[in-house]
Amino acid sequence: MISSAIDRLRARREALLALFSALAIAIHAFEFLLPSPVPWLRPGLANILTLCALFLYGGRAAWLVALTRICLGGLLLGTLLSPTFFLALSGGVAATAMMTLAHMLAGGRLGTVGISVLGAAGHILGQLLMAAWLLRHPGVWRLFPPLLMLAVVTGAFNGLAADLLLQRLRLRLARCP
Q1: At 134, is the secondary structure helix, strand, or coil?
Q2: CB-based burial of residue 123 (10 Å sphere; 0-12 exposed, 13-18 middle, 19+ buried)?
Q3: Mind listing the pLDDT tens digit for each residue in 30-46?
Q4: What are phi and psi of 41, to 5 degrees?
Q5: In 3D, which of 159, 170, 163 has the Cα closest to residue 47?
Q6: Predicted pLDDT at 177
Q7: Given 3.40.50.2000, 2.40.160.40, 1.10.1760.20, 3.30.390.50, which CATH number is that of 2-175?
Q8: Cα–Cα distance for residue pair 84/29, rounded to 1 Å
Q9: What's the rounded Cα separation, in Å, for the pair 39 and 43?
Q10: Is the predicted pLDDT of residue 174 greater than 90, yes or no?
């Protein structure tokens, strides 16, 4: 009896993480198609699903969703191993590291908005580090202040969206046996 309940919870977790990953890839691809003033500047809506994985299942789940989105998204969009891919990877790794570390250290005190803003700031920092390494030009760092301001705005928006989604998911999950 207990074993079957644990199996159901494990299956639900795996199914939800697969759904989060698939949706994150779809959103990543959609954002790639949107016009942008800077080729690698996106609102990061796919990160909403990484946040949900983090708050529902912890850091390992967040890493799974983030890396799956980046790698399979790069494969799907034909950017795998291109500079665009490495910018996405460096930003995604920095963002996920910041979010999981903040979630682990601060627990629930920061909430989804605070964790998301930190993740967005980490994403910008990771991308600029990679861009500076790829371009070998110090002028890249002049982009940091305006991009950081944009990251705070998009991070707050994504955090609010993740919070709304988490509220609905927790209600649904609580009703399921």
Answers
A1: helix
A2: buried
A3: 988 888 766 667 888 99
A4: -90, 115
A5: 159
A6: 63
A7: 1.10.1760.20
A8: 13
A9: 12
A10: no
